[in-house]
Inverse folding.
């Protein structure tokens, strides 16, 4: 999988919050493989994503959204236009 499979707006938000290159954002990018992805940045990313796409994640699901693929899937479930 490549960064091209991640919507550019989602890739840009995550790259900005995590302070990494957008090219490093792939569906597999997640908490376990990005040093900067800590709990604080996770919350920052979730809030930025909610604002960008006009959705609100279930607070109990937020902790489970630990990879780009999971976030992307949740956005699709919420009916967000990607």
């Amino acid at each position: 999988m490549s960064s091209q499979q991640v919507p550019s707006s989602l890739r840009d938000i995550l790259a900005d919050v995590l302070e990494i290159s957008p090219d490093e954002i792939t569906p597999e990018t997640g908490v376990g493989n990005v040093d900067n992805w800590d709990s604080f940045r996770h919350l920052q990313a979730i809030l930025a994503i909610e604002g960008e796409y006009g959705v609100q994640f279930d607070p109990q699901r937020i902790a489970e959204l630990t990879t780009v693929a999971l976030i992307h899937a949740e956005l699709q479930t919420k009916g967000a236009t990607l």
